Amino acid sequence: MNKIDSEPKLQDHLELIREASRESGSTIVTAAVSVGEDDGAHKIVLLDFDPFLSLLRQCRPRVIYVQADEFQSKENLHALLDIETIDKDVVAESAPFKTLVKRWAKFDGEVDFYAASFMIDGVLHAVLTKTTWYEEFEVAAKELAYSLGEQQFRAAENKQKAERARLSTLAKQLNEHPVFHTARAPEKLKYLARKLFPDADDAEIRIIVDEAIKENWLQESGYYAAGSD
User: What H or E segment, with its residue span, contains residue 224?
Assistant: First the structure.
């Protein structure tokens, strides 16, 4: 039996906390308690589950705060893939994403994290527990995010190279057009380029014309004839 299979179910912890709260007459509030670091009026004591449960039964607080997260492999993986430029719909259809979701789907519906706390005499007693398997899931998600980020970067880089090559080809076609050498003014060249390449937008037209002018200058200056790169 591995560590993941042998560790206690957090759902069982929550049921015991709820049972002890009912026995103590405590009201359960579904919320997380936040105490600022500079708040000197409170002290936080983090406990393991068993001491926390024992203290809960002894102290019988009026209110206990409980927050829990229920795991869903697909939704949790989406949340952890924090890549701004990535297309989430494309990712969801990718083989690595599907493989990771399938691998962790056996935990769907299980509690992967919970926090419970109550206040006694100005001291906040709390227990926070995350499952081992969720920590391993986070590591796998980070590795996938890195891999997808690398793929995204390479795809964008290749797209830019292809776009530059396409515009360079159009600039060469413009430079080879007979009217090019008679229409020296940039505005006339842009007009010619729009006629030749009606699908190009204004930004692409500017790039094409600039590239064609530079190419023509290199040809007329004898740059290529001199054998320069």
Answer: none
**Measured distance CA(203)–CA(210) in Å, rounded:** 11
Q: Read off the pLDDT of residues 114-147 as tens digits, 9 standing for 90 and up.
A: 999 999 888 899 999 999 999 999 999 888 888 8
Q: Say how far apart CA 201 and CA 194 lie, in whole Å.
A: 9
Distance between CA atoms of residues 188 and 154, nearest Å: 37
User: Which residue range is the domain that position 184 belongs to?
Assistant: 161-215
Q: What is the pTM of this model?
A: 0.60
Name the token pair of 37. 């670091």
Q: What's the length of the chain? A: 229
Alpha carbon distance 229, 109 (integer Å): 63
Do residues 12 and 114 make contact, with C-beta atoms less than 8 angstroms apart?
A: no
Please name the amino acid found at residue 47.
L
| Residue 184 DSSP class | -
Give the HSE-up count for residue 177: Cα atoms under 13 Å, Cβ half-sphere.
21
- Residues with Cβ within 8 Å of 207's Cβ and at least 6 positions away in sequence, in order, are 167, 171
Could you tell me if residue 180 is inside a domain?
Answer: yes
Q: For residue 45, what is the enclosing H or E element?
A: strand 43-46
Domain assignment of residue 126, yes or no: yes
177-208: per-residue pLDDT in tens? 888 877 677 888 888 889 899 998 999 999 99
For residues 117 and 57, membership in a common domain is answered with yes
In a domain, 102, yes or no: no
Could you read off the pLDDT of 80-89 as tens digits, one per residue? 876 555 566 6
Looking at the chain, the whole-number percentage of residues with pLDDT higher than 70 is 83
